[in-house]
Write a structure and sequence with these properties.
single chain; 176 residues; alpha/beta; eight-stranded mixed sheet; 8 strands
Length: 176
């Protein structure tokens, strides 16, 4: 994080909180949100400055690619190339915690920071209803590694997120 610490907002896991989180993402901010496994730290995957803030907040090396979360397969296909095998896997396996690494679609609007300059992208449709609501409200791809300082245990509560990243991110959706 650069500059002074910011006040991290705790948002409710309701329509209002999800709407506010989507606004924060759209303005280039960072939002932690619960997935079906751990909390993710999200930024607009098309916004290089927002993606760079993920690396800064986590203390994560920028040569380490990020997973892109999307709301559905149609959206995923805007950013990655899915052959028949990949499409079959995700049609049977999404939404879920399954991430697939596929070739990056030529002309993709994803920030090169997301893929660390690689010709492939890790992408998933999360199985969490709350995550899907956020992705639909935002309307775009969200780069989202785990919401913890690099090398630390992945957080499973909003309090864990605030303990590790409070002051470095804009908001956390408290999923209980």
């Amino acid at each position: 994080m650069t500059g002074s610490a910011k006040q991290t907002r705790r948002l409710a896991a309701d329509a209002e909180g999800i709407g506010k989180a989507a606004e924060i993402l759209a303005s280039g901010g960072l939002v932690a949100f619960p997935t079906e496994t751990v909390y993710g730290l999200g930024a607009d995957a098309r916004d290089g400055e927002a993606v760079a803030r993920i690396f800064a907040a986590k203390g994560r090396p920028s040569f380490n690619p990020l997973i892109v979360h999307v709301a559905d397969l149609a959206t995923a296909e805007r950013y990655g190339v899915f052959n028949r095998t990949a499409r079959s896997l995700v049609q049977d396996g999404w939404p879920s915690s399954l991430s697939l690494v596929v070739p990056l679609r030529e002309g993709s609007s994803l920030s090169p920071l997301v893929t660390a300059g690689q010709p492939s992208v890790a992408i998933r449709v999360p199985g969490s209803d709350l995550s899907l609501k956020l992705l639909r409200a935002f309307g775009g791809p969200v780069a989202a590694p785990s919401a913890n300082p690099s090398g630390r245990i992945s957080p499973t509560t909003a309090d864990h997120v605030l303990s590790g990243l409070g002051g470095a991110i804009d908001a956390v959706i408290d999923g209980g």
